[in-house]
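Recall that a protein's primary structure is simply its ordered list of amino acids. Everything else, from secondary elements to tertiary packing, is in principle encoded there. The following example makes that idea concrete.
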Amino acid sequence: MKVIFPKETQQSILAILSLSYDIAEASSLSFLLVEHVFGWTRTSIIINSAHTPTLAQQNLLDSCLVRLQNQEPIQYIIGMADFYGRTFHVNEYTLIPRQETESLIQYIKAYQAWSQPKIADIGTGSGCIPCTLSLEMATSEVHAYDISEEALSVATQNAQALGCSSIQFHSIDILHDSLAESGFDLIVSNPPYVLQSEKNTMHANVLEHEPHLALFVEDDNPLVFYKVIARQAKTALKPGGVLFFEINEQYGNPTEGLLLSLGYHHTQIHLDIHGKDRFVSAQWG
């Protein structure tokens, strides 16, 4: 293999990716890619020492470039995504953790002075929410639920890697099964909330690669998951227990109205980092 240099290699990758992405995103992707393939940090690129790539590295680089040109998210390509200052394993069976969802953690932490809360997360995906809550709060017990066995496998791996292996994971179809546990201080859920009709507004990297099971809900019943979870939470929460949802920005008021109609109180809509209605909280009992 011929000798290559980090700076020139990163710039060549940037030129290729600029044909498919805007320059800022292409630049970010190029740095992530050379770190993934060659282990080069930005400091390595500045130093720019000569490197002889292995055949495996060259093949990996070629494969990753093709996948990026096909709009596959970089997180799936490198198998990792950052959330709340920690790195989580992800794959095609899990949604990629969003920066917006980090605000959910902040709202929960600030909601009240929690004292060793018992927590449930419904629709756990990669496990980023229960793992983060377990590490950020002095929890007494954490349960995480998902319909996807593949997602639960990833979530379990993340819990073990992050040192919160005491989280209990459960396979459940929340639309048809009941929670077996109760006495929760907090139930949190980021369920499917993207309308089928919104598909034509979505980026290809999401629509063509992230799991539709975790994304979409039928247009004629957009609050179906919220209705089911909120009804179950009435018996699963302790008196005074709290419910937190991530929501479609269009449905802040309807979700709040739903919770009030079911007997919840102290309902509140919370904004995400873009100033959009993104979370709803409510108290039971």
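The chain has a mean pLDDT of 96. The first helix runs from residue 6 to 17.
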